[in-house]
């Protein structure tokens, strides 16, 4: 409908924008999008896969994988016991652990030089009622989102090059200051009472450019054998997970036995619980 199109918000509506600082503001653009809970989405995808016969072992610790003539021999630890599995194909989709996982695969698969980039969010008391705000941090012009989140306000994110154990990432004081300064600049009347903060890591190609300027493209690295039986996923965005999965299956299809499709994932609905 016309009301759902991208367009400018009339000046008469600016006073209703949750206390947004409008001095020297020239234009407000509006478009419609969606919001998700990443943890809830992951659980829904897992339940959906299980409903079609997938066997899930979670949590588990990956030990190693060795190439065989028909695929890979995988060792992992589950409930304190080391177990083994034989598989035709292996997908390394371990996010910031992708290189650490690859180091446990033999023979060594291809790897991509990457940086781990930490992103921190803060959760403030108080609610945004008019939607999600895209603003630019006064410190460096980076995009920061201010959005309603579970009856509170979520502000993020940052981009800080991270080194070390991915499991130990945590918000840094300078990141929290960066976000609160941005929030104060655009919403001077909003409560800055921080209810919680958290951080995560994204995988970006190594380079000299600032993290904000680097590609968010999903990069797939596969072994050179034909057919390929190993693929590693580098980078990408949560919102493209179905497309990424479809690309991986197309690449692995020659190594997999024929099987009738059980569902069309481009149309498959997920249930929240």
Could you characterize what this model shows?
- The protein has 273 residues and is an alpha+beta fold.
- It is 16% helix and 30% strand.
- It contains 4 helices and 15 strands.
- The chain has helices at 38-51, 98-102, 173-186, 241-252; strands at residues 7-8, 29-30, 61-68, 71-78, 81-87, 90-92, 105-106, 114-124, 133-136, 143-149, 152-156, 160-162, 194-205, 219-222, 230-234.
- Strands 8, 9, 10, 11, 12 and 13 form a 6-stranded antiparallel sheet that branches. The chain has a 4-stranded mixed sheet with strand order 5-4-3-7, with no helix packed on it.
- A hairpin with a 7-residue loop joins strand 14 (219-222) and strand 15 (230-234).
- It is elongated.
- The model has no long low-confidence stretch (mean pLDDT 92).
Task: Write a brief caption for the model.
By secondary structure, the protein is α+β, with helices and mostly antiparallel strands. The chain is 16% helix and 30% strand.
Descriptors:
4 helices; elongated; 30% strand; 6-stranded antiparallel sheet; 16% helix; alpha+beta; 273 residues
Low confidence ranges: none
- Helicity, as a percent range: 10-25%
Shape: elongated
Strand percentage lies at 25-35%
**Helix-strand topology string:** EEHEEEEHEEEEEEHEEEH
- The end-to-end distance, rounded to whole angstroms, is 31 Å
Mean pLDDT: 92
Tally of contiguous helical segments: 4
Secondary structure tally: strands: 15
Biggest sheet descriptor: 6 strands, antiparallel
Radius of gyration: 22 Å
Structural class: alpha+beta
How is the secondary structure organized here?
Elements: E1 7-8, E2 29-30, H1 38-51, E3 61-68, E4 71-78, E5 81-87, E6 90-92, H2 98-102, E7 105-106, E8 114-124, E9 133-136, E10 143-149, E11 152-156, E12 160-162, H3 173-186, E13 194-205, E14 219-222, E15 230-234, H4 241-252
Parallel strand pairs: 3-7, 6-15
Antiparallel strand pairs: 1-2, 3-4, 4-5, 8-11, 8-12, 8-13, 9-10, 10-11, 14-15
């Amino acid at each position: 409908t016309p009301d759902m199109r991208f367009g400018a918000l009339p000046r008469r509506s600016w006073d209703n924008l949750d206390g947004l600082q409008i001095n020297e503001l020239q234009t407000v653009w509006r478009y419609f999008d969606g919001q998700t809970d990443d943890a809830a989405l992951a659980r829904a995808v897992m339940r959906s896969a299980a409903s079609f016969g997938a066997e899930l072992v979670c949590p588990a610790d990956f030990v190693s994988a060795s190439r065989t003539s028909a695929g890979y021999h995988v060792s992992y630890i589950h409930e304190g016991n080391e177990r083994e599995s034989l598989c035709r194909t292996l997908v390394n989709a371990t996010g910031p652990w992708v290189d650490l996982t690859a180091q446990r695969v033999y023979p060594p698969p291809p790897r991509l030089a990457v940086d781990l980039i930490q992103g921190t969010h803060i959760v403030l008391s108080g609610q945004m009622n008019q939607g999600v705000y895209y603003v630019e941090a006064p410190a460096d012009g980076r995009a920061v989102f201010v959005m309603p989140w579970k009856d509170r306000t979520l502000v993020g994110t940052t981009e800080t090059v991270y080194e070390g154990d991915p499991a130990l990432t945590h918000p840094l004081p300078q990141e929290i200051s960066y976000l609160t300064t941005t929030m104060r600049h655009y919403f001077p009347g909003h409560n800055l009472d921080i209810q919680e903060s958290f951080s995560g890591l994204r995988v970006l190609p190594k380079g000299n450019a600032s993290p904000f300027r680097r590609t968010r493209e999903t990069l797939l690295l596969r072994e050179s054998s034909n057919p390929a039986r190993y693929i590693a996923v580098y980078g990408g965005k949560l919102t493209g997970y179905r497309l990424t999965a479809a690309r991986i299956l197309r690449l692995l299809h020659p190594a997999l036995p024929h099987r009738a499709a059980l569902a069309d994932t481009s149309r498959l609905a997920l249930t929240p619980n």
